[in-house]
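Protein modeling request. Please complete all fields; requests missing the sequence field cannot be processed.
Requester role: graduate student
Desired output: 3D structure, token encoding
Chains: 1
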Amino acid sequence: MLEKLQPFILAFIPIFVAVDAIGNIPIFVSLVEGSNKKERRRAISDSVTTATAVAVVFMFVGKWVLRLIGITIPDFQIAGGLLLFVISLRLLLPGASKMLVANGHDKDVGVFPLGTPLITGPAVLTTTLMMLDTHGIIPTFVSLMVNMLIVWLTLVRADGIIKIMGASGTRAFSKIMYILLAAIGVMMIRRGLTGVIFP
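Delivered output (199 residues):
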């Protein structure tokens, strides 16, 4: 039983780290500040729908695009690993933030910047493609859907989570996620280099 679940668990964890559902909560709250319940619900729906659609489309066409332009999987592993490492390093630096300039009253705030690039950004796209290559389409797709469900739940309960964890608690959790993301980036680089040296 555990062996059957292993690919799903191994695909879930890196995507969970890349999505950073908890870390997005303070940003979501600031973006929808002053909005009524209907506007908040719409922002949540738009953000999760956009994030899911972008990730799923890239998951299915990403490899085709790579083949079309002559990029091998080891090439993408090295580049993707470097990208994840740089992103995580920038987010770990003092004063770094995922926050983008946006008007919290913008009716499309759920699509941009919340849906993409905050929920589904380069880290999620890269990680999803790597998990697809490593664990297969079903574990990756299920893991992605479960993570998007978690995102939806955290945004719906955003105010309550911030009260429980506190603003500093959510930031600390995010920092831990960024360290794990850096480690995943290093792992991808290592696998990519192994694929190039020993094809």
